[in-house]
Amino acid sequence: MRVRARAATTALATGLAVVLLGSTASATEPGAPGIGDPYYPGSGNGGYDVDYYDLRLTYQPKTDELAGTTTILATSTQPLSSFYLDFALDTSSVRVNNQPAKFAREGEAELRVTPKRPIAKGQPMTITVRYQDVPSTVQVDGFTAWKRLPDGALAVDQPHIASWWYPSNDHPLDKATFDVSVEVPNDVSAISNGRLLDKESKRPGWTRWNWRSTSPQASYLTTLAVGDFEVIEDTTPDGKPLVTAYSRSLDPANARAAKASLGRTVDVTEVLSEYFGPYPFEANGGVVSPGVGFALETQTRPVYDEVFFDDGSSNTYVVAHELAHQWFGDLVSVTGWRDIWVNEGFASYAEFLWSEYLGEGTAAELAGYLYDQYPADDPFWQVKPGDPGPENQFHPAVYDRGAMAVQALRTEIGDAAFFELLRTWPAERANGTGSVHDMIAMAERISGKQLDKLFDTWLFTPGKPPVGPNGSATGSRAAQAEPPAFAKISRNHELLHQN
C-alpha cells in the first residue's frame, strides 16, 4: 500500500508538474510590438513599463558616429517569453537581468529581445543594450529624424526620435526618468534635458556631459543637441537651473533676437504659472540652432530653429507656446496621438494669453480675427482638430482652429470655470496622460454644463462653425483691425505645423 501510494503520489506530482509547466508555457507569450496607438500601430510596446533610462554614449561629430550603452529599468506587466524595443541602430549585444539575451531585428525600428529565462508578471527587468551606428544614415519609413549639422547633430523630432539614438518604449503612455551622459570632443557641447550634474574629462580631448531628468518624461521629449554652442548657465528666481544655448553658427542678427526672446523665459514662465499653476519641472531654458526646421517642447529645454527669430524683432510668442507645453504636453502628455489638440490647442491659446499680458490684443480679439480670416469654403475647415488623422496631425487647423475652440470654450463656460480648468488639468493629471475626451469630461465637471454640442462643432465636425469663438456670427467687433500680435502668432503657427 505504501509503495502504491508513493507511486500514485509520484504520478500525481508528475502530472501536476506537467500541468503547471504547460500552464506556465501557455501563459508566457511575447509582448506586443505596439502599445495600441491607432495613428502609429508600431509605436511603443506591450508587456512592460519603463521606470528609468540610463544613456551612456560617445558621439563623434566628424563622422556622425554614435556608440555606447543604454540601460533600462522596467517591470513586466505580463509573463513574457520575449519583448520588443523601439530601436533602429546597429546593435551588438543585449542583456536582460545580467544574462545574455537573443535579439533580432523585425522591421526597421523593432528589436525583438528573447531573454535567457522567461519573465514573470511583475518581475523587475534590467535591460542593457550596446550599439554603434551612424544615425544620419539610418532610415525608418524612408527618412531619418536625426539632424546632422556641420559641427554636430540634433536628436529632436515629433512624434518619434528615440529610435535614432536609444532603445525605448517609444510612446507617451510610458514615461520614465532619465540620466543622459554623452562624451563629445572638447570643442563642442552636448546638451540634453533637466539638470547639468557635471562635466568631466577622463581622456584627452574629450568631455562628458552628464544630465539628469527627475520628472517622468516621454521618449520624444528627450533631446540631444551637439555642436558649437554658447551655453549660458543661470538660475531662476526660485533657484532652478536656467540653461540656454545658442549655436555659434546662427546669423548674428538672429542670435541677438533669439537671446532677447529666450532672455524672457523666466518672465513668460511666471505669467503662464498664474494661469496653469506652478512651473512643474526641475530646470528651464532653451536651445536655438539652425537645422531644426520647427520648434519643439522638449522637456525643461525647448529647441527652436533660428527662423523664428529672423523677422526683425524678438519673438516671445514662440517661447510662450513652447513653455505652455511644459504643462500641456509634457507634464500631461497625450494618451494617444489623436489627442494632439490638447497639446497644440492650449499651447497656441497660451500665445493669446501672453498677448493679453503684453497689451497686443486680447484672446477674444485674436480668436475673432483669426476666425474671420478663413472663408467658409477654405479647406482649412475640413480638418477636425479633435481627431485630425496622422496625415494632418500638425495641420494649421490643429493650432488655429484648436485655439479658437479653446476661446469658444471660454466664452461658453465663463472665465471663472475656464481658468479653473486651466489649473485643474495639470494638477490632477500631473506626470500622466490625458485625452480629448478626458478634457471634455473635466470641462463639463468644472462648469456644470453639458458641452457635447460645443466640442462636436469645434473639434469633430468638418466645416466652419456658424457661430464664432466669441459667440457671434463674425469673429468679434475688433475683427476689423488686426491685433498687433496677430502677424507674429500666425507666422509661428505656419512654422510650427511644418513639423
From TrEMBL:
**Gene source species:** Tamaricihabitans halophyticus
Q: Which residues cross the membrane?
A: none
Q: Which residues form the Aminopeptidase N-like N-terminal domain?
A: 51-221
Q: Name one GO biological process term.
A: proteolysis
Q: Which UniProt keywords apply?
A: Hydrolase, Metal-binding, Metalloprotease, Protease, Signal, Zinc
Q: Which InterPro entries match?
A: Aminopeptidase_N-like_N (IPR045357), Aminopeptidase_N-like_N_sf (IPR042097), Peptidase_M1 (IPR001930), Peptidase_M1_aminopeptidases (IPR050344), Peptidase_M1_dom (IPR014782), Peptidase_M4/M1_CTD_sf (IPR027268)
EC class (word): hydrolase
Q: In what residue span(s) does the Peptidase M1 membrane alanine aminopeptidase domain sit?
A: 311-458
Signal peptide bounds: 1-27
**Protein EC:** 3.4.11.2
A GO molecular-function descriptor: alanyl aminopeptidase activity
Name of this chain's protein: Aminopeptidase N
